[in-house]
Amino acid sequence: MTKSSDNRTRRAAMTFIAFAIAPLAMAQAQPVTPLPTTIENFFLRGTQPLHLEPDNEIVPASEDCAFCHANAAPIYDEWRGTLMAQAARDPVFYACLDIVEHDAPGAGDACIRCHAPKAWLEGRSTPTNGAAITAQDRDGITCNFCHRLVDPFDSNYSATELDAFVLNDLGSDRPVQSFDLGTPSQPGFGGSGSYVIDPFDRRRGPFPVATEGNNPPNAAFCNDFHWAVTYPKCESDFGTPDGCPTFESPFHRSSELCATCHDVSFPHVSYNAQGQAVFNGSGVAHPDGNKYNMAPEQRTFSEWLKSEFAQPGGVDMGGRFGAEGQLSVSSCQDCHMPRRSAQPCISPSVRPDVPNHSFFGAATWVLDAIALHYGPEGPIAGFPLFPDSQEFCEGDIHEFCGETAQAVRNSGSRNRQFLTRAADLEAYVDDEHTPGESTLRIRVINQTGHKLPTGYIEGRRIFLTVEYFDCSGSEEPIAVFGQYDAATATLDHSTTKVYHAEMGPDEGIAAAVNLPAAPSAHSAFAVKRFYDNRIPPRGFNNAEFSAIQAQPVGYDYADGQYWDDTWFQIPQGAVAARVSLYYQQTTREYIEFLRDNNPQAQSNPTNRGELAYALWTAAGKSAPVLMARLGADAPFDLNDLPGGGDTNCDGLVNADDIPAFVDALLGLTKSRHVLRAADLDRIDGPDGADIQIFVNLLLGN
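RE: above sequence
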């Protein structure tokens, strides 16, 4: 029997398990009708559970890799604080998992394969609610997992010819190339966790590897050590025990690797010729495996693929991203894992090109929450840890100790700093957009290689806040557009420009699950985008973004546009303004959805939706992160506004303005407003040329 047929047998058994546990989830009264799915509906190609060779499990980073890649070497310390390392402790992941499992039983299998790949590969993705995930699995996306990835689409087997055997052994489970919906269609590579893992512990990396008798330039001297620690996990060509060699892998230098988990689709639906989602049928796997014929949950890699950054040479960003001195950036690694000089392992050598494993990104409050709950200060009151938590810190059981908790917090801080590079702001006073009325035009410029914001749609947004000030010198604004109440985590939507996307069921799916065909946070039913005004990247093209299911919806961007303009009314008496752009990872509305729609909301006060909400509250309610600001030191003057001469700021030009006007002419005032109001010809400040204009204003001429 082939391994592929073994996998089919295993999945049949898992289908029985899914059916057995589904009534337990469905017994709770819920406002929606679940789809009749099983784990087979979420089958995706690639290495399947239990496909690893015996004794070649995915090694937990904290037990294996830390020995050589920590302390003097920075890699482990950087990694352990990131959401990559904490993906299987993420409280939002578990809260969402509960709901998606209720809405579409078996869907959790598609989630676990990226958040806890060790658990998935070793057969602990069932039950699909994550109940079998262990403490070692919670190492998340480990070093060993990433560095055993095989390029599914490299016909040249550039890392090693052994990859031909790895891929061919998958049989019908070998991933298929996804082609987009364009004419002609173009390759879109992989996604949704359809990864291929070397069944042996043969590791791969971005550098040439020195071997006996072969020491190429720029080589890494890791093969002998990895060989030693993996002996006798592999077999030689003669079937005798042998160590596992290490290989240079171009895949690990490419963005295609990142597509593995950063282009996500749900495979339980396909799309017909009219673009309507069609449920594939209970227990029916997706017919073609093309991610662009599935429900798009996120398209970060595809957005990059259709951007200017993916073109040869990338984009000259002037050093905004990338390694020190690097001007042009292209790959995901360039921005999120920039190279720097470091000691990569316990060997004394320092390389100038070691990728940073901090994985700079957009995770903020959730990292603080993980450090709080699973570190030595936790758990938070009323919510237990995972049942198998066993790390002892200061005499108590925790998931990890103080150093790791601090590393997690540090990662959140780095991400907040990284977000300040993602966008720029520009402001103009514009009297053409609304004839006869001056408005403040704010331009937000996307400086990233994907949409702004990108990734997980639910709960993620960017918004503008515009504050206006009068000439009194008060720090209190006279008007605010985009007011955010930190105490209640409430945004004034009526006056706020928000960049976000809204997904939900279309008419067919809505009828099946007893929901309206409208935006909804039920991700298992999210088959249609109702709105998407997220700002596209450089190189944006409407047709190409339509081909990857990522076109703007309910909003217009011209081909080539990677910015957006918004016009704000200027209230009477306003002489200065401050403009701020904020990012928020998780809105109050979304975290409340996760709390209120948990299948155990009425029966279990410590359910995972309640935990996510409690941690969100304890970690500051996902406080918005300031990305960019105009008028940071002091509000900027609205210098081009008509109606000068109002030197005393009462909204009128009359005799009461004469004393301050004279002071401006004589240089007796430093008030920015008075000097601006007296400079009526906007040339060289207040002087004699402004006197006649002022007199005409007094006389009403």
